[in-house]
Amino acid sequence: MGFSLSPLADQDGFRLEAFDTIGSTNAVALERAQAGDPGKLWIVSKQQESGRGRRGRAWTTSHGNLAASLLLTGNFELKTAATLGFVAGLSLADALDAVCPAAAFKVGIDGAGNSGSGKSVLRVELKWPNDLLADGAKLAGILLESTQLPNNRLAIVVGIGVNVVVYPDDVPYPATSLMKLGANCDAETLFLALSDAWQENSRIWSEGRGLAEIRKRWLARAAGVGSEVAVRVDGAVLRGIFETIDEDCRFVIRDNEGGRVKIAAGDVHFGAVASANAE
């Protein structure tokens, strides 16, 4: 089976470029934008050799994993376009619900979620700002990049990387893969569901007009609400309790002095041990 778009995505004019191996799906998408591509273009691959994550970190994928980048163009405000990361997280979670119902997932932070039947309930959680967790470990990451186009237009690339068969073991945080979790799902099947779920969530988002509903849905799947958290921001570590994300999707914590702190960007660590490791 090769990569293909869902019927809804195809009907809405989305296009697909599929590769067996690629340097970086985000980089190719940005190249397409600079060459004048009109957007609504998915770039996908089962192996990425020189991908990148947040803050310039390397993000390579072994063969069989999923690397997918969506190019969108328009008269977006950058602040509004940045919230597409939350649309991506919801879309990926919805896709996993659709194609991996038999996987041995648990709740992301506390391990709850057993149905009482001896089988774990499929549930993944969204970790602010751009990760997806399963059983407390990182299963997927999201990276947004942008470039300015002529006539005040903006190109946004939504990059999504999923550990389908292999996960890294040389990272400072727990990681996992769909295969390890017992899911019988390949990259092609997951992408098909992702391209379908994107249609629904982007329709709700509606160029930012539906952000309140996206925020509500994201919080319903959020990891660590009410938990102890440490956030690294520009070299400093802020500690407190994760309360919510605000109307602009900023991370809101109640600090140790009882004040509320809103954070626009940072690395989040949950739990007492993770907080200590944030140092």
Automatic annotation (TrEMBL):
GO cellular component, one term: cytoplasm
Catalytic reaction annotation: biotin + L-lysyl-[protein] + ATP = N(6)-biotinyl-L-lysyl-[protein] + AMP + diphosphate + H(+)
Domain Biotin protein ligase C-terminal, first and last residues per copy: 226-270
Single Gene Ontology MF annotation: ATP binding
Record's keyword terms, sorted: ATP-binding, Biotin, Ligase, Nucleotide-binding
This protein's record includes keyword Lipid biosynthesis: no
EC number of the protein: 6.3.4.15
InterPro entries from the UniProt entry: aa-tRNA-synth_II/BPL/LPL (IPR045864), Biotin_CoA_COase_ligase (IPR004408), BPL_C (IPR003142), BPL_LPL_catalytic (IPR004143), Transcriptional_repressor_C (IPR008988)
Domain BPL/LPL catalytic: 22-163
Cross-referenced CDD domains: BPL (cd16442)
Listed PANTHER family: BIOTIN PROTEIN LIGASE, BIOTIN--PROTEIN LIGASE
Protein name per its UniProtKB record: biotin--[biotin carboxyl-carrier protein] ligase
Organism field: Phyllobacterium bourgognense
